[in-house]
Design a protein that fits this description.
The chain is an alpha+beta fold. The chain is built from 6 helices and 8 strands, in the order H-H-H-E-E-H-E-E-E-E-E-H-E-H. Helix 2 packs antiparallel against helix 3.
């Protein structure tokens, strides 16, 4: 029951459910809450993001941290002055992002606290993407690209990628409370150091094509 209530699509907090179940006089209220969470009478479920009430939108203002990571790159077009990387693959990806003509701005997601929820081996976890880039779309808008760098895609990484592409991205796209410029997202996986620029260019092209606006008749 805890796992079900904690599911991002249910919309019923675990604390609320337990409060109703523990209080014997409110069992009927608990049943009603569960039925409401399961109600699909209005049609297929549409996933939407739940914005944090205290800080619905975050930015990189005031980001300042120290690190012992050895792979550090100075940047020109990043939201941050430096990219702190765990590997040579990440370092090469940072350089490619910084120089790609379609990348308007980008950031190495290290020390920012930005994570995406996913489910793996019976528990909810937090996935921290390696990079996020904002692409300049031909229609004048923006497309955001999550970039993950990993030499070997294990089961845990596959689960994080699947939940990002199948749940988080559609959820954000369907959230009308967000600005239209924040609702177009894609995901890319970079695994070969020898073809980082080629693979990133292909991923950027695919992301822009996936979100291309139909031309006016």
């Amino acid at each position: 029951m805890r796992a079900w209530a904690a599911h991002p699509e249910v919309g019923l907090s675990t604390e609320r459910l337990l409060e109703l179940v523990i209080d014997s006089g409110r069992r009927s209220e608990a049943v009603e809450a569960v039925l409401t969470a399961c109600d699909v009478s209005a049609g297929p479920m549409v996933r939407r993001a739940k914005l944090a009430a205290h800080q619905p939108l975050a930015d990189t203002d005031g980001v300042d941290f120290e690190t012992t990571l050895e792979h550090i790159a100075e940047t020109r077009r990043s939201e941050l002055s430096h990219a702190a990387c765990h590997s040579r693959l990440e370092l090469l990806t940072a350089g490619a992002l910084d120089e790609h003509p379609r990348v308007a701005r980008w950031a190495r997601n290290f020390g920012l606290g930005w994570t995406i929820p996913y489910h793996f081996e019976g528990a909810w976890r937090r996935y921290e993407p390696d990079f996020v880039a904002t692409l300049a779309a031909p229609d004048g808008g923006e497309v955001h690209l999550i970039v993950e760098c990993k030499g070997v895609m294990d089961a845990k990484a596959e689960a994080a990628a699947r939940w990002t592409t199948e749940h988080w991205i559609p959820c954000v796209a369907a959230t009308a409370e967000l600005l239209a410029s924040l609702r177009r997202w894609s995901y890319a996986f970079i695994e070969h150091a020898g073809s980082v620029r080629h693979d990133l260019d292909a991923a950027i092209g695919a992301a822009l094509a996936a979100h291309a606006q139909p031309s006016a008749a």
